[in-house]
Write a structure and sequence with these properties.
The complex is a heterodimer of chains A (535) and B (318). By secondary structure, chain A is of the alpha+beta class. Chain A is 54% helix and 16% strand. Chain A has three domains: 206 residues, Multidrug efflux transporter AcrB transmembrane domain (Multidrug efflux transporter AcrB transmembrane fold, Up-down Bundle), CATH 1.20.1640; 89 residues, Alpha-Beta Plaits (2-Layer Sandwich), CATH 3.30.70.3400; 218 residues, no CATH class. Chain A has a seven-stranded mixed β-sheet with strand order 6-8-7-13-12-5-9. In chain A, strands 3-4-2-15 form a four-stranded antiparallel β-sheet. Chain A has a three-stranded antiparallel β-sheet with strand order 10-11-14. The two termini of chain A are 26 Å apart. A four-stranded antiparallel β-sheet of chain B has the order 2-3-1-4. In chain B, a hairpin with a 7-residue loop joins strand 2 and strand 3. The chains are: A alpha+beta (535), B alpha+beta (318). Strand 15 of chain A pairs antiparallel with strand 4 of chain B.
C-alpha cells in the first residue's frame, strides 16, 4: 500500500511539472514568471542563417598560443560586425577545441550581405571626438531633418508627438532659441539618443534597431554635418540589453590599424595614483609613432576614439604628447576588459584568414511551411493512433491513449524546461514516438489478453501481464535509447534535435505506459469487483 | 477487437524461402549500387550548393520561368552542370531546386553568385523577401568530416547494441540482431539507390532510427524466445522459436501498424523538408518488421541447430 502511495506522488509530481511547463504553449497571458522559460524554434522552423567559419592556419607558422589569440581576435571581430548587422538574438559561438566559429542569424532573409560583412578585412581607426559645438550642431541638424522627413521614417512615429523635452535640453546645455520655433517642438533625434535616465548620447536597447536602421539610411547619412559621423559605442558584454553610448566623431581617420605594431595588457605597479590596476599598452610602428607624436602633441585634452569596423570601443582623452610611439590607455578597467580591448586593437592585423566553410539558410516561408506541415502531420498521426487503440483495445486502449497524450506533452514540457530548441527533425522525432509510445502498452495488453485466454482472473492477468512485459519493454527501449544517444553524440544541430526528442520520448513513454497506465488499471481493478476487462 | 486469434504459421519451416527473398532484394540493391557507382550522396557529404528558390511571377505579365532558362543564365555566368528541377509547391507557386558544385572555392560564394544571376535575369519573378527558401553551401572539408562522423556513428550504434544484447541474452542473439540490422540497412540503401534518392545527413539519422526500431521489434521476439526455451524444454528449437514468433505476431503487427501510420502521416503531410527522411523510415518500418520475423529469429534456429549437432540433444545443454 505504501508503495502505491509513493507511486501516486511520483505520478502527481511528474504530471504537475509537465503541466507547468506545457501550459504556456497553449494558454496566453500567463503571469510573466511562468513564461520565463520557453521553447525556442530552430533556424529551420523560424527561418534564418547558420554560417560556420574557420580560421585558416594552413599557410602560417604560428605557435599554439598565437593561434589561440588569432581565433579569439577573429571571434571578437565577427561579434562586433554581427552586432552592427542588426539581427535580433544572434548566436556566435566558438566550436570547442577547434578553430571554428558558428554564427546563427535568426530571421535573416538574404545571407549574401552577412557573408560579405564577415568576409571583409577588419578596419581599426583612430578618430577625434567632435567638439561640443559640433555635437550641438549635429543634434540641431538631425532633429530638424527628422522632423521634416518624419513621413519617410515609420520607425520614428512614436517620437513625433512628444513635445515636452525641456529637461533634456537643459542637460545638453542647448540654449533655447525663441526664433527657432520648429526646432522647439519636436526633437526626435535628441529624444531617440537620450537614455531613460536622461543621459544624452545614449541609446536604450529598445531603440537600438531603429538607430541602426538610421545609420544605414543614405538620406539620413547625407544630412549629417559635413566632416562628422555618428557612431555607436560597443555593447556591454555582461549586459547586452543596457543602454549604449553614441559618439559624434570627425569622419577623418587620423591613424589606421596598420600603423599599430602591437597592443598588450599591462598591470600597473601602483607607484603613482595613475599607475594602478590593469591598463593597455599601445606600440606603434616607426612611421605610425611619428604621426602619433604630432597628433597627440597638437590635441592635448581632446578625446581620440578607437573604433573597429565603425563601432567605438573606447575614447580616451589625450593627456600629453606621446613621443616614442608607446601610448598607454588607463581607466578603471578590469583585466578582462583590457584583454577584450587588446583583441580589438590587434584586429587590424589578423594573422590568419577566416573562411566560410559551411552555410545553411532557411527562408521564412519554408520555415513557416515546415511548422504548419509538422503540426498537421503530428495531429493526423496522433488522431489515427488514438482512434485505432480505442477501437482495438476498448477501454484499455483509451488508457494507452492517455499515455500517448501525456508523453507528447511531457516531451514538450521537458524541452521547455531545458530551454531546448525545437527543429523539424525534432518534430519528426516526436511524431515517431507517438507511434512507438503505444508499443509498450501493446506488449502489455497482448500479454494480458494471453493470460485472460489462459483462464486467469482479471486481477492476476493484469499483474502478470505488466510484470512480465516490463523486462521486454526495458530491453527494447534501452537499445533504442543507445542509438538515440549515439545520434546525439555525432549529430549536428537538427539531428541533435531529433535525438533529444526521441530520447525524451522513450523515457516519457516508459513512464506513461508502465507507471501511469498501471496505476489506472490498479484503480480500476481494485475498486470494482469486475471480472471482465475491456481489452 | 482483434486481428489475430492464436496463429500457427510455420515461419521457421519456410525460413529458406524468406532467406532467398531477402537475398534477392539485397542483391538487386547491390547491383543498383554498382551500376550507379555507389550511393548518391547529398551535398552534406560531397560539399556543394543546394538552393530552393521561389520564382513565382510577382509582376503583371511576368513569364513563367523554364528550367532551361535558368540553366542558360547560370551557364552564361560560368556556373556549369547545375542540376535544376522544379519542386511541387503550394498552388500557384513555382519553386525551383538548384544544385551545383562549389565554383572557385567557398570564398567566391557560389550561392551568392547564383542569387545575383537570378535576381538580374528574372527580376519579374523575384521578391527579395521570399526568394530564398533554402540555401545550403557546404565546403568539401566539412563534407568529408560529416562522412567520417556518419560512419563512426553507425559503427558505435551497432557496437553498443551487440554489447547490450550480449549482456542481456547471448552473444549469438546479438550477432543475429546485427545481421538483421545490416539486412535492413542494405535493403533501404538499395531502394534509395534504385529510386535515385540522395543519402543526406538526415537520411543517416533515419537509418539509425531504423536500426533502433527494427531492433526494438527483434528484441521483443528474442525475449519471448528466451522465455519459451525455458518453458518448452522438450520441443525442438525450431518449434519453440516458431511458437514465440506466433505469440508475438499480434504485437509486432500492431506496433508496426501504428508506427507506420504516424510515419505515413509525416510522409504525406510533413512537408518537403522531411519528405525523404519520412520515406526512409517508412521503408525501414516495413523491412524492420519483416526482418525480425523472417530473418533474426530464423537465424537463431540455424545457430541452435548447428550447436545441437555438435553438443547433443536439447535439454542437456548447460
Amino acid at each position: 500500500m505504501r508503495n502505491k502511495k509513493i507511486r501516486g506522488l511520483i505520478i502527481l509530481g511528474v504530471l504537475l511539472v509537465t503541466a507547468y511547463y506545457f501550459l504556456p504553449m497553449v494558454v496566453p497571458n500567463l503571469p510573466s514568471f511562468w513564461t520565463t522559460k520557453r521553447l525556442k524554434l530552430g533556424l529551420d522552423l523560424q527561418g534564418g542563417s547558420q554560417i560556420q567559419l574557420e580560421v585558416d592556419f594552413t599557410n602560417s607558422e604560428l605557435s599554439e598560443k598565437e593561434r589561440e589569440d588569432a581565433i579569439k581576435t577573429a571571434y571578437e571581430i565577427i561579434r562586433n560586425r554581427i552586432d552592427q548587422f542588426g539581427v535580433a538574438e544572434p548566436l556566435i559561438q566558438r566550436v570547442a577545441n577547434t578553430n571554428r566559429i558558428i554564427i546563427q542569424l535568426p530571421g535573416l532573409k538574404d545571407p549574401g550581405r552577412a557573408k560579405d560583412l564577415i568576409g571583409k578585412t577588419a578596419m581599426l581607426e583612430f578618430k577625434f571626438v567632435a567638439s561640443s559645438e559640433q555635437m550641438q550642431e549635429t543634434y540641431k541638424t538631425m532633429d530638424k531633418f527628422l522632423q521634416e522627413n518624419i513621413q519617410n521614417y515609420e520607425i520614428l512615429q512614436e517620437f513625433s508627438d512628444i513635445n515636452d523635452t525641456e529637461e533634456v535640453v537643459d542637460i545638453l546645455g542647448i540654449e533655447e532659441d525663441a526664433e527657432d520655433a520648429s526646432y522647439d517642438n519636436a526633437m526626435i533625434f535628441t529624444d531617440l539618443t537620450t537614455s531613460e535616465e536622461g543621459m544624452p548620447l545614449q541609446i536604450e536597447y529598445k531603440y537600438l534597431a531603429t538607430l541602426k536602421e538610421l545609420l544605414k539610411d543614405p538620406q539620413f547619412l547625407q544630412n549629417v554635418p559635413t566632416g562628422l559621423q555618428i557612431a555607436l559605442g560597443k555593447e556591454d558584454k555582461n549586459d547586452p540589453y543596457s543602454a549604449r553610448d553614441i559618439y559624434i566623431l570627425h569622419k577623418r581617420a587620423e591613424i589606421t590599424g596598420d600603423a599599430l605594431d602591437n597592443a598588450i595588457t599591462r598591470i600597473g605597479q601602483g607607484y603613482t595614483a595613475k599607475d594602478k590596476g590593469p591598463y593597455i599598452m599601445l606600440e606603434f610602428k616607426k612611421t605610425g609613432a611619428k604621426k602619433f607624436k604630432n597628433i597627440t602633441g597638437q590635441n592635448i585634452g581632446e578625446r581620440l576614439a578607437i573604433m573597429l569596423d565603425d563601432i567605438v570601443f573606447i575614447a580616451p582623452t589625450i593627456e600629453s604628447r606621446i613621443p616614442d610611439g608607446q601610448a598607454r590607455i588607463t581607466g578603471n578597467f578590469t583585466i578582462e576588459e583590457c584583454h577584450d580591448m587588446v583583441i580589438v586593437l590587434n584586429a587590424g592585423s589578423l594573422p590568419a584568414p577566416v573562411n566560410i566553410i559551411e552555410e545553411r539558410t532557411v527562408g521564412p516561408t519554408l520555415g513557416s511551411d515546415s511548422i504548419k506541415a509538422g503540426i498537421l502531420a503530428a495531429l493526423i498521426g496522433m488522431v489515427v493512433v488514438i482512434l485505432f487503440m480505442m477501437i482495438y483495445y476498448g477501454l484499455s486502449g483509451l488508457f494507452a491513449d492517455i499515455a500517448v497524450i501525456v508523453n507528447v506533452t511531457f516531451i514538450i514540457a521537458v524541452m521547455t524546461m531545458l530551454e531546448g530548441t525545437l527543429t523539424m527533425p525534432g518534430i519528426a522525432g516526436m511524431i515517431l514516438t507517438i507511434g512507438m509510445a503505444v508499443d509498450a502498452n501493446v506488449i502489455i495488453f497482448e500479454r494480458i489478453r494471453e493470460y485472460l485466454a489462459a483462464g486467469k482472473t482479471v486481477r492476476s492477468a493484469v499483474d502478470s501481464g505488466f510484470s512480465r512485459a516490463m523486462v521486454t519493454i526495458l530491453d527494447a527501449n534501452i537499445t533504442t535509447l543507445i542509438t538515440a544517444l549515439v545520434l546525439y553524440q555525432f549529430g549536428t544541430g537538427p539531428i541533435k534535435g531529433f535525438a533529444v526528442t526521441l530520447s525524451i520520448g522513450i523515457v516519457g513513454s516508459m513512464f506513461a505506459s508502465i507507471v501511469l497506465v498501471k496505476a489506472i488499471f490498479d484503480g480500476l481493478v481494485t475498486n470494482s469487483a469486475k471480472d471482465k476487462l475491456s481489452i | 477487437m482483434r486481428f489475430f486469434g492464436k496463429t500457427k504459421i510455420d515461419f521457421i519451416g519456410k525460413r529458406r524461402i524468406a532467406f532467398a527473398i531477402s537475398l534477392v532484394v539485397i542483391l538487386a540493391g547491390i547491383v543498383s549500387l554498382v551500376i550507379n557507382k555507389g550511393p548518391k550522396y547529398s551535398i552534406d557529404f560531397t560539399g556543394g550548393v543546394a538552393m530552393e528558390l521561389d520564382l513565382t511571377p510577382v509582376k503583371e505579365g511576368a513569364q513563367i520561368i523554364k528550367v532551361q532558362d535558368i540553366r542558360d543564365a547560370l551557364t552564361n555566368a560560368g556556373i556549369q552542370d547545375a542540376e535544376i528541377q522544379e519542386i511541387k509547391g503550394a498552388e500557384g507557386k513555382r519553386f525551383i531546386l538548384i544544385k551545383t558544385q562549389v565554383v572557385g572555392g567557398m570564398k567566391d560564394k557560389t550561392s551568392t553568385k547564383v542569387i545575383d544571376v537570378i535576381k538580374k535575369q528574372f527580376p519579374d519573378n523575384v521578391d527579395p523577401d521570399t526568394l530564398i527558401r533554402l540555401q545550403e553551401e557546404v565546403g568539401p572539408k566539412i563534407g568529408e568530416e560529416l562522412k567520417g562522423k556518419a560512419i563512426l556513428a553507425i559503427f558505435w550504434a551497432l557496437l553498443g547494441i551487440i554489447l547490450y544484447i550480449w549482456w542481456r541474452f547471448e552473444f549469438t542473439f546479438g550477432l543475429a540482431a546485427v545481421a538483421a540490422l545490416f539486412h535492413d540497412i542494405l535493403i533501404t540503401i538499395g531502394i534509395f539507390s534504385f529510386l535515385g534518392i540522395e543519402i543526406s545527413l538526415s537520411i543517416v539519422a533515419a537509418l539509425l532510427t531504423i536500426v533502433g526500431y527494427s531492433l526494438n521489434d527483434t528484441i521483443v521476439v528474442f525475449d519471448r524466445i528466451r522465455e519459451d526455451l525455458k518453458i518448452y524444454r522438450k520441443e525442438s528449437y525450431g518449434s519453440v522459436i516458431n511458437h514465440s514468433i506466433n505469440e508475438t505476431l499480434s504485437r509486432t503487427i500492431i506496433t508496426s501498424l501504428t508506427t507506420f501510420v504516424v510515419v505515413l502521416s509525416l510522409y504525406l503531410f510533413g512537408g518537403t523538408v522531411i519528405h525523404d527522411f519520412a520515406f526512409a523510415i517508412l521503408v525501414g518500418v516495413i523491412v524492420g518488421t519483416y526482418s525480425s520475423i523472417f530473418v533474426a529469429s530464423p537465424l537463431m534456429v540455424e545457430h541452435f541447430n548447428k550447436r545441437e549437432k555438435k553438443m547433443g540433444t536439447r535439454g542437456k545443454k548447460k
